[in-house]
Amino acid sequence: MALERLKRDLVKMGSLGRHNGSMVESYEELSVDNGLWRLEGSELSKASKDYLVQKMKEAELKVRYDSIGNIFGRKEGADPFKKAVMSGSHLDSVKNGGQFDGPLGVIGALEAVRTIKEEGFEHSRPIEIAVFVGEEGSAFERGLVGSEVLSGNISLEQGLNLVNNEGELLKNALSGYRGNFNLDLADIEYFLELHPEQGPVLDTEGFSIGIVENITGLSWLRVVIEGEENHAGTTPMKMRKDALVRAADLVTFVHEKAQEMAEKTAGSFVATVGKIEAHPSATNIIPGRVELGIDIRDTRLDNIETFKEAVNERVEGFGRTPGIKTKCELLINKPPSLCSKEVIETVAKAARELDLAAIKMSSGAAHDAQNLAGKVKTAMIFVPSVNGISHSPWEWTDWDDVDKGVRVLTRAIKELAR
Amino acid sequence: MALERLKRDLVKMGSLGRHNGSMVESYEELSVDNGLWRLEGSELSKASKDYLVQKMKEAELKVRYDSIGNIFGRKEGADPFKKAVMSGSHLDSVKNGGQFDGPLGVIGALEAVRTIKEEGFEHSRPIEIAVFVGEEGSAFERGLVGSEVLSGNISLEQGLNLVNNEGELLKNALSGYRGNFNLDLADIEYFLELHPEQGPVLDTEGFSIGIVENITGLSWLRVVIEGEENHAGTTPMKMRKDALVRAADLVTFVHEKAQEMAEKTAGSFVATVGKIEAHPSATNIIPGRVELGIDIRDTRLDNIETFKEAVNERVEGFGRTPGIKTKCELLINKPPSLCSKEVIETVAKAARELDLAAIKMSSGAAHDAQNLAGKVKTAMIFVPSVNGISHSPWEWTDWDDVDKGVRVLTRAIKELAR
Question: Domain B217-334 adopts which CATH fold?
Fold first, then answer.
């Protein structure tokens, strides 16, 4: 494996996401206004695909595009009848994100294949590199688009007709990166995704490698509280129907209840009120309407269900006050995904043989791997995120950890493809 | 007094604030998207001044503009050495506001003068109608601009250099409605402002006339809480620095403490968190920064001070958690204004003689009258706001109440100008 080549590709790929095209090689070069803006379907997105496809071709891979815009690069194995080992991730970024979230898993898989090729390592299974389209959901209405369609969770039609912020359909935004090839997951035996952790566990606890055993289930609730917009100076306290006062109660409730659940689940449970929009949000007007977005995650479905019920009950309680109306909608409801014991143990063995400190853990973030997990034997490899930061221009993974992650990935792919 | 003429002028003036120019004569004709958009300095603002000045000239008033853009219309009295009785209000509106807030006090004063003229009523003092520029603060950075400059609270320079949302200076936005005349408040004996209540007291309790004894003091606090923006899925509950959780605590604290103070002050005290802006406000991101706008009002300065200290202390408490930074700024700090006993009693007597049910009350809203109150003998006359609604396209005052208000105003002006 060639760390210099891997690094060069990752830095170059990063530059294809920054407005000024700068090559960022170290944490010290990061700045608040120089993150990646490689939204799916953008010009920079096309440039990143151009670069990757060129590199896959240089590695003599067979490059194919499917109907939703996923990109595949295949190295054949000795036995044409065996199912493939697939590895990959995504190339799109959030707004003002970092250069490793996604590309690490794509370029990492490419480097693994290049290494296998250079070593002349013989394997019977084909190895398929995958780039999933529209993972982040920052441009189009939802994320994980490519893997959702590939795994049959949403239809091709639904995927193609997703609309971005500019009103453009996904099918019209892919600049030629769509094809007729349709990969059948029945032809895939294993899937492995290398990714930064996007959380603080590895960085804080000093592990180089995280082996993902499951990806947490996720529910999103959208709560709307309607009271009565009124003049803050002339409406006596007793006559108010303040929507924000109820919203504040709900934020506190979600936080306290989540802390309680976290203690019961050894820290796996999390819930967050991330979004709050008050209307009209003017200092001298009593807020008449507040919308809240609540994110609930755990590895156990029953915990998520219990929590949602508690939130629902609290919100319904507000509605019993005359003049207060409430709504509580379920926007996303994804059950937890379990990884394959076989793949987990293969990764654990690879880390052990490379003498790297690894820990088994859950992924709190969503990944394309969760869609694959229901269909093929899947696991993920995490590497540390500096300070646990992600979806931010300050996202970084040290080169030493990048190196370790790709070495574990390469060894595990070899083992699975043997 | 001619109700039909008054009504015609008010409805016409209203039409000069609506984008479609429609004449709205009844509550039933109101609609959510047909409020007034007569921001100071806009074309509709100029049209409203053109109309008023024409009407003042028709009434043979001497029209003058001062250097900040206040407009005056003078009817001389018998004694040229006597100080004037002034009455007026503003013509500008909030965004999507109603047609009575401001114009009622201007057209009402005009109608009073027209009536006095037609009746041939003899008075020794001059009567001066005033239109104060930029009362609402919806276009420029602050409100009450005309009366602030007139009373010397801010300099002419400061006033003229206020900037609106489009980056235009006030001095460049007045379309010729600025002059060289500078009115000296030492030449004014009394000031009376007729205005809709903008609150629910008169409407709920069945009074036609409110006599304002004082205008509450007002403080605005801007609180910023900074925590740590992070991934909602991958950051364990224990490792969070959630700015919104602290903000929610503050909203609850402000509300509960304000309720307590309201009980102690027979309902006069109010405090509101009207503004809340969370960053980045995305469901799957722990809010890293929340800004809150708090509005605090009472007729007693010491209550406002006590409350501000309590808020400050609470906010400082958040900052004692490592990773949480806070800021608490005082943006506005206006002491309560007391009205003149003499003018209050004159209004009370007028209402009594007209057999109208009147109640003495506080104004929770800010008015140009509060700036005058420190310099000349001042009071305000309130008429009911339907459902207590204000700063809204649903703002309305019944014509019967408009009539009563203007009759009381006319009678009080006669008495004071006699």
Answer: Alpha-Beta Plaits (3.30.70)
